[in-house]
Design goal:
278 residues; mainly beta; twelve-stranded antiparallel sheet; 13% helix; globular
Length: 278
């Protein structure tokens, strides 16, 4: 598509998407097939917008399906990004509300004792913890058990950004940005922190985190974190915690900021707690 404007230096970005995990499959040592179909293309000077639908399968069995909108943008257009709120600096919910009547639990995941509680492997529950190393994306967390716009729970988390962060050299070539999927991973990790702090998996013998099946999430990106940024922050408004015999599902609406500009919005993001068979 970029050959339409051969003289332009364009930047590739994901803008929107919807995805549904159809079933949980053990993908280790297996091949994933991704079938993609182009639905539409709109091109104007300095921008190309394309919509796709996709389906991922393993051994002929579909397990993830959805659609996405991607864009190729000139440097000038990217320089004028205004985020999700038309350039307004929308603050997180906890900064806009008087929290004196609510119990705020503050968690510093960089504290050595706290880090051990959330990251260390318990032999009896080896999967009931946060990810480490390259998948460790949050430093500080505020939890309000009855807070948020749904009054069912609220999470705020933040992470410092440096030009040395591991993903910048790999995404994209000569155009370093934090992958949007890692922003989503940061939100999921904040939700995992919430589940661990409240010990939502206490009824399971060997709890583990998983994805919600046949549940659609919707995302919107209107900006990206670059090596020039110094702070990523996010919030999750818990909308429902569904407790069933063999699964607990946490659902919420989330936003993500770079500095004070809101750039991601994720609707109905979901996380499950299950009893592991291993």
């Amino acid at each position: 598509a970029t050959l339409l404007f051969p003289e332009d230096d364009l930047h590739f970005r994901n803008l929107d998407g919807q995805g549904t995990i159809l079933k949980e499959i053990d993908l280790r040592n297996k091949t994933i097939t991704d079938k993609v179909r182009l639905l539409s293309t709109t091109a104007i000077q300095g921008a190309i917008i394309q919509k796709f639908e996709f389906e991922l399968s393993c051994e002929g069995e579909p397990f993830y399906r959805g659609n996405m909108v991607f864009g190729d943008f000139s440097t000038a257009l990217l320089a004028n990004q205004v985020g999700l709120d038309g350039g307004k600096r929308l603050k997180p919910w906890y900064q806009l509300n008087n929290l004196s009547d609510l119990t705020v639990q503050e968690i510093n995941l960089q504290d050595s004792l706290t880090h051990q509680n959330f990251y260390s492997v318990n032999p009896e529950k080896p999967h009931y913890r946060l990810s480490q190393n390259y998948l460790d994306f949050i430093e500080k967390v505020f939890l309000i058990e009855d807070g948020g716009k749904y009054q069912k729970g609220y999470i705020y988390a933040s992470q410092s950004i440096t030009p040395e962060d591991w993903y910048f050299p790999f995404h994209f070539y000569q155009d370093p940005v934090m992958p949007g999927a890692l922003g989503i991973e940061s939100i999921l990790q904040a939700m995992q922190t919430y589940a661990l702090q409240l010990d939502l998996g206490k009824s399971f013998k060997n709890p583990r985190f998983g994805q919600a099946i046949n549940h659609q999430i919707t995302w919107k990106y209107r900006g990206q974190i670059t090596p020039e940024n110094r702070l990523m922050s996010l919030e999750v408004h818990i909308s429902d915690i569904r407790v069933e015999d063999d699964v607990i599902t946490i659902i919420g609406d989330a936003s993500l900021w770079k500095e004070d500009l809101r750039i991601y919005e994720i609707k109905d993001i979901a996380l499950c707690l299950l009893d592991s068979e291993e």
